[in-house]
Amino acid sequence: MMDRNFDDLAERFAQNIYGTLKGRIRQIILWEELDQILATFPNAALSILDAGGGIGQISAGLAQRGHHITLCDVSEQMLIRAKQHAKEQGVDSQMTFIQTSAQQIGEQLENPVDIVLFHAVLEWIAEPEKTLAALFDTLSPGGVLSLMFYNVHGLTLQNLTLGNFGYLNAHMKKRKKKTLSPDHPRDPADVEQWLQNVGFDIESKAGIRVFSDFIRDLPPSANGEEGIIEMERRYSRQEPFMSLGRYIHVTARKPAIKDEL
């Protein structure tokens, strides 16, 4: 098992992830989650690490709000696109770009950060708990991890509805290596246990794309894409739909240092 480097798929990633309704839903739910996180901090510029940040759409948006961003990625091609995107958005002066892994970024940070973004990376790495521990160490006490990961239950449900029983019986192992389908879909129960083992307190969860991947033909009364987005937002934080999301977002906080009596 090895961590995935996206140098060979950077262009496809940019087009297929962000240039679709799926990407739009992902961005909307993530921003709602981030707004809730930001509201727990003082109204001041924060230090934010985007670990495995790809082309940096979310972090560039945070930089536009006045926050200071460090974006790291192992992929040189992703960093080239992230720098270009930041320049286009006029926030390149507020962002620092480092080619390194999430596991090693702590060695290059001068100070702890307030927030860590770790979005759609956990499913591509070989040692998830060790990586979460490394990110825990980059946070200041009271800091927050915004974690989004590919959910094995959502993937299982989709393949059940498609009748891909052979794929399920093969434990959903990929036949092709160069695809955007994650290498290691994660079980939410495992992820929560890893977070707790590391020392995080889990504060909230949300599902991303809890039903829209299963839609084939929408009636006119569904109001097209806007209707889909409305329903995704409505059910993203309700069980059992939340736990069946294609992705799960978890807000986890590093405990603050308590004043000694």
TrEMBL record:
Record EC number: 2.1.1.-
GO process annotations (BP): methylation
InterPro entries with a match to the protein in the record: Cmo5U_methylTrfase, Methyltransf_11, SAM-dependent_MTases_sf
Residues annotated as domain Methyltransferase type: 49-146
Binding site for S-adenosyl-L-methionine: R26, G52, G53, D73, A102, Q103, H119
Catalyzed reactions per annotation: 5-carboxymethoxyuridine(34) in tRNA + S-adenosyl-L-methionine = 5-methoxycarbonylmethoxyuridine(34) in tRNA + S-adenosyl-L-homocysteine
UniProt entry keywords in alphabetical sequence: Methyltransferase, S-adenosyl-L-methionine, Transferase, tRNA processing
Pfam families: Methyltransf_11 (PF08241)
Tree of life domain: Bacteria
Record carries keyword Methyltransferase: yes
Molecular-function GO term, any one: methyltransferase activity
Role summary: Catalyzes the methylation of 5-carboxymethoxyuridine (cmo5U) to form 5-methoxycarbonylmethoxyuridine (mcmo5U) at position 34 in tRNAs.
HAMAP family found in the cross-reference section: tRNA_methyltr_CmoM
Protein family (similarity comment): Belongs to the class I-like SAM-binding methyltransferase superfamily. CmoM family.
Protein name per its UniProtKB record: tRNA 5-carboxymethoxyuridine methyltransferase
Lineage per the UniProt record: Bacteria, Pseudomonadati, Pseudomonadota, Gammaproteobacteria, Enterobacterales
Gene expressing this chain: cmoM
